[in-house]
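User: Okay, second chain of the day. Same drill as before: sequence in, structure tokens out.
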Amino acid sequence: QLQASGGGLVQAGDSLRLSCAASGRTLSRNSVGWFRQAPGKEREFVATKFRSSNNIVYADSVKGRFTISTDNAKNTVHLQMTNLKPDDTAVYYCATSSTLIFSEISNPRSYHYWGQGTQVTVSS
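Assistant: Same drill. Structure tokens below.
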């Protein structure tokens, strides 16, 4: 089970740190991805940390502003978001995959387990 938390209402330029805590599975043994979905839009890839290589890939829209980090002792993955923009407003989800390949990182169907989502709202 995955539990995403840390969302909230912030102003443009502010920062937030989202957390994805896992129970029943070890996150370090899985690739962990973050997606977001705004109202009326499709689920959008944000970032992924690969299991095997620790390689992290970010969507162009968040590169330089968002950072994935891991806390293996707490079996948690964080998404640090800085310089938030109104376009970042969405429900953010974390997801895991034990078989993720690079060519499929942005495909939600490549991820097998999903958290319930946490709302991030950025006001202008």
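The mean pLDDT is 95.

User: Thanks, on to the next one.
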